[in-house]
Write a structure and sequence with these properties.
Oligomer: single chain
Strand content: 15-25%
Number of strands: 21
Number of domains: 3
Number of helices: 26
Mean pLDDT: 83
Low-confidence stretches: 409-417
Helix content: 40-55%
Radius of gyration: 34 Å
Distance between the termini: 39 Å
Structural class: alpha+beta
Length: about 800
């Protein structure tokens, strides 16, 4: 038995070598479907299953505060404060523990090399216990060290390797952070990445009594570990009740809103913004895999039809169905093996190409690879599809009687057997292809529409540089302002620089601060706005138009009348056509001591978050005038914006040189053009659009090959009919119409089914669409025309061959 199967396997290899055209087409279909699907499945597998590298990740949750008034202002959730954390830990019975992290922490590291900005977090001592991860070297800081704000630090594995050479004597070593000495007490393992992979050190979180009593210091990310058996819904209900009791101790203003808590899995918290994108890619590549399998099935059906006579003779001579099935399996194994190897090679190449293009904030990037589960899936699909499709010859042989077979000629035998199957497969292939092409078209039209959106500023020619300040060197706000002024003055003196300015949070930088805004005399017309502190020259540098009033000036200093600038959208919303200059507003924490700012100007509205969303207006205040800490969570960082001609990056070295002259210990990071920031905001959309279009083009190619194969084989089986028609006087055009008519009928059936499915698929990708409907008629019409053109081109070759048939030669051979 084994010997016979081995002989069948060797025969299958010889068949593949002899029929090179069939082999290339089959392997191409299999490799393309398996390679693309394996690459995308590898990404999804790593992100959705390995993005949380901590024990029992299903019990880890993030806790966010919610507020009905904030939700009305497009702020569905926000960070918590220290008072909430203390109440949750002392009153909740749903958690083993809850930890806090202040993520907005920049550290200037100056040791054994040039100054370097390091992203770090100030965290509570219990974070390792919550995440069930302990330092690989040394220890974590204690509760007592956090209470006294001890100068100790735990560093990441990456920072340990990169800056300290991976030596074990780093524990106990002093380092300089923000011009202060910290002792390294521990090194976390390489798998520890919280809140994200960008964080490279953690220091004790020191919480003052004033902050605990504050209602508005929403500065912290909270992560908790649920007790066994506790559901997210139970934890959310309990913490919401605790939070509302906490809110009752504060006086409720007219727009205070009702507080609540959003408890979500840590996986959803980290992957949530990418989940819909991943699902769309999964569905798209699944469609492509289906098309590849259908195309392969069509090729094997054609091969089965041509071998039906052979298998019928074997059955008539006594071969059992089991023997025929075994022979088919052994013969198809070489095709499965070659297709699997080609698919895996393609998947590895695609992953290498794809990884640099993935968004840097996508969790689980470091675990993406061809793991055993994905490889098993690829191989299983390959062998399963080839085996199922390859069973057709044996099935046909078991249904055909020898007497019937002997009455048919070798050429005409099999024309009916498998013909319906071939047509059904092609129709399914065309329908699935149409869905992918329409989805890709909708995404392309959305991207084109987004690229036409005016962001409200002029990114061309603008260079941006991030600065993280050392407050120990510039302890007062006035010193910080003077430092900024000196840097701007130096930069403006550089040849080729048109203007320069500063802002605390750059548009499109994925950071934001949203504040409630109250206008004097219009307490019933409150709003929420993005707040930014700027230096004079920022608006002209960015190309943001000044519509009314004046810009900030050097005279707007501490001790003078507090001033502010609002954007045009907020001005129209609150004041209509009236001039708002001279009116007053305040924002942030609304108390008796909250300062009123005089409106001195109105600037153009810009898009802060992304080109495809415009949730809030903006307010600005001068960096030189003090504001409460609650209104300045990013006070230790600034972004220098520089406008010049030509390529912005050509100015980078000169700008950095001037900054280093002013302060040699000042690290400069994230140097890029403003156009790069816009491109980065579109990175995920560009990637999804590109991949879906790749899948669509690949499916269109496979559909073309599949339709060409069916039409060619169908025309070959009808050659006797075409010869008789030609002998009876049929024109070549009539023969051509018969073949092309077959192609059009298949296109009509496939398009009808595909449009119905595409209507549903369009709604599924609706979250990624902008400025175009999910049933956009232009996109659907273009996809139908493209598919029709492919069908007609696929039918031209068989049609021309059919119309050139020689009746004498064909009928004589029959």
């Amino acid at each position: 038995m084994i010997g016979q199967l081995w002989q069948d396997f060797r025969y299958g290899v010889r068949v593949l070598v002899r029929h090179r055209g069939f082999t290339v087409a089959a392997v191409f279909s299999l490799a393309l479907g398996i390679g693309l699907s394996t690459a995308i499945y590898s990404v999804t597998y790593s992100v959705l299953l390995h993005a949380i590298p901590f024990p029992e990740p299903e019990r880890l949750v993030s806790l966010w505060l919610t507020n009905s008034a904030a939700a009305a202002a497009n702020v569905p959730r926000f960070n918590t404060n220290a008072g909430n954390w203390i109440d949750w830990r002392s009153q909740s019975g749903s958690f083993e523990d809850i930890a806090l992290t202040r993520a907005v922490s920049n550290f200037n590291l100056t040791v054994d090399g040039p100054p370097q900005r390091v992203q770090g977090g100030r965290t509570t001592w219990n974070l390792p216990e919550v995440l069930s991860v302990q330092p690989m070297l040394g220890r974590m800081f204690t509760q007592e060290e956090a209470r006294r704000d001890a100068r100790v630090v735990v560093i990441s594995f990456g920072l340990w390797q990169r800056r300290f050479g991976g030596t074990s004597d780093v524990v106990g070593r002093p380092i300089q952070l923000n011009d202060e000495s910290f002792d390294v007490i521990g090194v976390m393992p390489s798998t520890f990445q919280y809140p994200s992979r960008d964080f490279e050190l953690w220091t004790p979180l020191f919480i003052t009594p004033e902050e605990i009593r504050s209602q508005y210091a929403f500065n912290y990310r909270a992560v908790g570990r649920l007790k066994p058996g506790v559901t997210i819904e139970q934890a959310q209900s309990e913490t919401t009740a605790i939070t509302r009791h906490w809110a009752q101790q504060f006086p409720a203003g007219p727009n205070a809103g009702q507080y609540g808590v959003l408890v979500e899995s840590l996986l959803d918290s980290r992957v949530g913004q990418f989940r819909s994108v991943l699902y769309i890619l999964l569905c798209s590549v699944g469609c492509l895999l289906l098309i590849g399998c259908i195309n392969l099935g069509g090729l094997l059906v054609v091969r089965a039809s041509s071998r039906a006579r052979e298998f019928a003779i074997r059955a008539a001579l006594g071969a059992s169905p089991a023997r025929l099935y075994g022979q088919t399996l052994a013969e198809t194994l070489p095709l499965s093996f070659v297709g699997s190897v080609a698919g895996i090679v393609l998947a590895r190449w695609l992953l290498k190409l794809l990884l640099p293009l993935l968004p840097s904030q996508l969790p689980g990037l470091e675990t993406i690879g061809l793991n055993s589960a994905v490889l098993f899936f690829a191989v299983a699909v390959s062998f399963g599809i080839v085996w199922l499709a390859g069973m057709l010859p044996a099935v046909l042989a078991s249904r055909i009687q020898l007497a019937t077979m002997t009455k048919q000629s070798g050429r005409t035998f099999g024309s009916g057997s498998g013909g319906l199957t071939r047509n059904v497969l092609v129709v399914a292939q065309l329908a699935t292809t149409l869905v992918l092409v329409i989805a890709g078209g909708l995404l392309v039209r959305s991207l084109v529409t987004i690229l036409r959106v005016n962001p409200g500023f002029s990114p061309s020619g603008v260079l941006t540089l991030q600065l993280a300040l050392t407050r120990s060197k510039y302890p007062t706000d006035s010193q910080v302002t003077e430092y900024y002024r000196r840097i701007i003055s130096r930069v403006r003196s550089i040849a080729g620089v048109r203007d320069a300015g500063m802002i605390n949070i750059l548009p499109f930088s994925e950071l934001r601060t949203v504040y409630p805004v109250e206008v004097a005399g219009k307490t019933d017309q409150g709003a929420a706005a993005d707040g930014r502190s700027v230096m004079p020259g920022y608006f002209s540098t960015m190309g943001i138009p000044l519509i009314r009033g004046r810009d900030f000036s050097e005279q707007d200093r501490e001790g003078t009348t507090p001033v502010g600038i609002i954007d045009e959208q907020l001005a129209i919303k609150i004041f209509g056509e009236n001039n708002p200059v001279g009116e007053r507003f305040r924002f942030g924490v609304m108390t008796a001591t909250t300062p009123w700012l005089e409106i001195i100007g109105v600037v153009g509205h810009i898009r802060n978050d992304s080109l495809d969303s415009d949730p809030r207006p903006q307010v600005y205040w001068p960096e030189s005038q003090p504001a409460s800490d609650a209104n300045r969570p990013y006070k230790d960082r600034a972004v220098l914006v520089v406008a010049g001609g030509g390529r912005p990056v050509s100015l980078a070295s000169a700008v950095v040189e001037q900054i280093q002259i002013e302060n040699p210990d000042q690290p400069v990071y994230d140097v890029r053009s403003m156009e790069d920031w816009l491109d980065k905001s579109l990175q995920s959309r560009n990637l999804v659009t590109g991949l879906v279009m790749l899948f669509g083009c690949s499916s269109l190619l496979l559909a073309f090959l599949g339709l060409y194969g069916v039409l060619s084989y169908g025309a070959l089986l009808r050659m006797r009919e075409f010869a008789i028609r030609t002998a009876l006087g049929a024109k070549p055009e009539a023969i051509r119409r018969l073949v092309l008519g077959h192609a059009i009928r298949l296109w009509v059936l496939g398009s009808g089914i595909g449009l119905c499915v595409a209507w549903v698929a369009g709604r599924a990708v609706g979250s990624l669409l902008y400025g175009v409907g999910s049933s956009d008629p232009l996109t659907m019409a273009a996809a139908l025309i493209l598919l029709l053109g492919s069908a007609m081109i696929a039918g031209l070759g068989p049609a021309r061959k059919a119309e050139r048939v020689d009746p004498a030669v064909t009928l004589r051979s029959e």
